[in-house]
Please model this.
Amino acid sequence: MTVIWTQRIVCLAENNEQPKASVNHEHVLGFKTAEGKVYKLTKTRFSEALFVDRRLHEKELLLKGNVSEDAKSFDALTIRSIKNGVVHDLYYYCEICAIESVSPDICGCCRMPVELVEKPLK
Model:
């Protein structure tokens, strides 16, 4: 398990980390670490929010997960944000059902929209 602190999630093709993309290209999401290493994000149930919710691209993030064997991609298992030097839990919440989720999709119970929540870790 690896913990990576990243400034922003970006499209690697738009940031010259992948072959140049056409104007209407499919985004290849990834990030660059403080050490200069570039990782492509693997899309999973736990990282889906990074592909769907653009608000997360503007946040300073702390990702915990696994680096691939070729050290080129990253499989995020937990996503946290950092605000003013404080680590925050980052999740989606349904007010109606009181259910937390890692996905920004509608609530699996009541089918209503969920809210993005950032809560300081204790």
About this structure: Strands lie at 2-6, 10-11, 29-32, 38-41, 61-67, 73-83, 86-94, 99-101, 115-120. The chain has one helix and nine strands. The chain has one domain: 2-91.
